Amino acid sequence: xxLGVLSDIHEDFNxxxxxxxxxxILSKWITTKRPNVxxxxxxxxxxxKKTLAxxxxxxxxxxxxxxxxxxxNHDIYEENSVNAYETLLQFPGNLGxxxxxxxxxxxxxxxxxxxxxxxxxPDYSKSDFKKGTFNNFTWPDKLYANWxxxxxxxxxxxxxxxxxxxxxxxxxxxxxxxxxxPYAKYVEYKDEPGWDFFNSMxxxxxxxxxxxxxxxxxxxxGHVHKRYHEQHNGMEIICNPxxxxxxxxxxxxxxxxxxxxxxxxxx
Length: 267
Ligand SMILES: [Fe+2]
Ligand SMILES: [Fe+2]
What we know:
Blueprint: E1 2-6, H1 11-18, H2 22-33, E2 37-41, H3 48-61, E3 66-70, H4 81-88, E4 100-101, E5 106-110, H5 126-131, E6 133-134, E7 137-138, H6 140-144, H7 151-168, E8 173-177, H8 193-196, H9 205-213, E9 218-221, E10 228-232, E11 235-239, H10 254-261, E12 263-266
Parallel strand pairs: 1-2, 2-3, 5-8, 8-9, 9-11
Antiparallel strand pairs: 1-12, 4-5, 6-7, 10-11
């Protein structure tokens, strides 16, 4: 069984910047390569309604591939992020709806997740991270994402849901998916305060702890716009973002960048 993996498509931004139809390139790739499943681990657009419409369109254009999705921080930029989360659940392949059984052995378990400052450098306090402003730059989620609870309570909500599913399927081979980073190893520490401060907003150790506890075989995430594909803690790690044109791309054309970025894994 073949699984295609991509995250951080940022369709709205990349379409404007490259004047290319990002989704039709993606849909052409899927219908040509025909993976059984295609997993998009968050950050499709800055609006739940736009993300939902693009997912529905993609699934319609690629009926032979099951499109699976978890939301990123950008997909829930709305006055009320709980409403945005619920809008996105209308997409049947949203892993927030429940566990997907690929076959008798393998299941996919995931949801977007959030961050709890557990990857933050120790030089700052929890209230600094809560404010999210450093050198006059405010982390965009602080302006555009609106949860009712604190960031760590949001993570608590996700870990509760994920651990319930993981426990239930603990005897199966598990592919776990979040948008946010599960291990500090995949957060870049540059020794530049203006960069390192924002590492607090990259993910949570709790997701990695759950993956370790339940012996997850493959872990797919995104959010950090840097690509990783390696073995870690006995699991296959796949972080496969498209990222922003032009600075995070290696090719000038959207077609080349997208087709070279997509990772195909097999189970
Ligand atoms: Fe992103
Ligand atoms: Fe993100």
